[in-house]
Design a protein that fits this description.
By secondary structure, this protein is mainly α. It has one domain. The protein has 14 helices and two strands, in the order H-H-H-H-H-E-E-H-H-H-H-H-H-H-H-H. The protein has a two-stranded antiparallel sheet with strand order 1-2. A hairpin with a 7-residue loop joins strand 1 and strand 2. The longest helix has 29 residues.
């Protein structure tokens, strides 16, 4: 909005020419997001407490989590506001990629809101039935995948980070592949959201990493130099991703141990979907698995646990997702969280290093 309103006035006010630069608007959006979440956080938490929007804690979970009962949840709504408003202010709203990413994020947030609403207000500990949640994710993921496919700016090829000239043309199978990536990322982040600040930390590092990747993909010169696919208009996603990272950073102020507010599915499903759809647009689906390996391992731990128990009657982990396994092994919650953050930072560095390994 600011870009469309102020940039055309650059001929009269030369200083407004800075709005041309994605880097300037990226920093502006990030500052807006982090201040938005940090300043409105106390009022939001107070409001959620008054409305009795309190976390439901599993009785079969680690005993240390019983003290979390009564902590306000659905804090993801604050994150989504911190993403949507600054994105609309600072991004080029004529860019389709921005609308696809933001629309998918808000749609997944809506699914998460329904799930949280059923748990918190309707007192249904199971929330939204899994099949309906998955159906909604697939539906909105399919819409996003269709518009990406229809746009034509994004190639249908599956690119491999370490192989410069090798790619697989997916053709029409690009759409189901994109759906799998988006839905998988959304659920993986949701499964990771089990400890104070655990999901937020890797989301920040992954968002910043993909901010750089999106900017590079959108710049023809840089993309050609790095031998990565050039995606026209992808650079504007750097602004969107800066709001994701910054709003998570502002939210972390209140979500770090001991948490004053929890994200809830309204935040976790949306943030995972945001990472997934950006990975598809920028042709970095495989790098998402590398950079977001924490999320992948969390999801795999659940699948392994379920398959093992159903086939052999035995559990591989003390409890799944795997962060609970480490808790039950005696690791304090902050130690689990910080070590996962450290691994996430290392994975982000490894991901960016692939830009020169082609």
């Amino acid at each position: 909005m600011l870009y469309l309103l102020l940039y055309p006035l650059r001929t009269e006010f030369s200083f407004l020419n800075v709005f041309k630069y994605i880097t300037f608007r990226t920093f502006g959006a990030a500052m807006t997001s982090v201040l938005f979440c940090m300043l409105l956080g106390p009022a939001f938490i107070s409001y959620m407490q008054k409305k009795q929007m309190k976390q439901v804690v599993r009785d079969d979970g680690p005993q240390s989590h019983l003290s979390k009962k009564g902590t306000p949840t659905m804090g993801g709504a604050l994150i989504l506001a911190g993403v949507a408003i600054p994105t609309l202010l600072w991004a080029d709203l004529e860019n389709q990629n921005v609308w696809i990413a933001l629309g998918l994020t808000l749609a997944y947030g809506f699914i998460g809101f329904i799930d949280d609403y059923k748990k918190v207000i309707r007192k249904n500990p199971k929330g939204l039935a899994g099949r309906y949640k998955l159906l909604g994710q697939v539906f909105f993921g399919a819409i996003a995948a269709y518009f990406i496919f229809k746009d034509g700016a994004v190639t249908n090829e599956l690119r491999f980070p370490f192989l410069k000239d090798f790619a697989i043309d997916l053709g029409v199978f690009f759409i189901p592949f994109a759906i799998i990536v988006i839905v998988g990322a959304s659920n993986a982040v949701n499964l990771t959201d089990g400890l104070d600040g655990l999901a937020v930390g890797p989301t920040i590092t992954t968002s910043v990493t993909f901010l750089i990747l999106a900017y590079c993909a959108g710049h023809a010169g840089i993309a050609n130099y790095l031998s990565i696919p050039h995606v026209p208009g992808a650079g504007e996603l750097a602004i969107f991703l800066s709001t994701v990272a910054a709003s998570c950073l502002g939210f972390l102020w209140y979500n770090t141990y001991p948490a004053q507010v929890f994200m809830g599915d309204v935040g976790a499903l949306a943030l995972g979907g945001a990472l997934g759809v950006v990975a598809v647009i920028t042709k970095n689906e495989i790098l998402l698995a590398l950079c977001g390996l924490i999320f992948v391992v969390e999801a795999l731990s659940v699948m392994i646990q379920v398959v093992s128990f159903k086939t052999t009657g035995k559990r591989v982990f003390k409890m799944a997702p795997i962060h609970h396994h480490f808790e039950l092994k005696g690791w304090p919650e902050p130690k689990v969280v910080v070590r996962f953050w450290i691994l996430s930072i290392l994975l982000a560095i490894a991901t960016l290093s692939t830009l020169k390994l082609r």
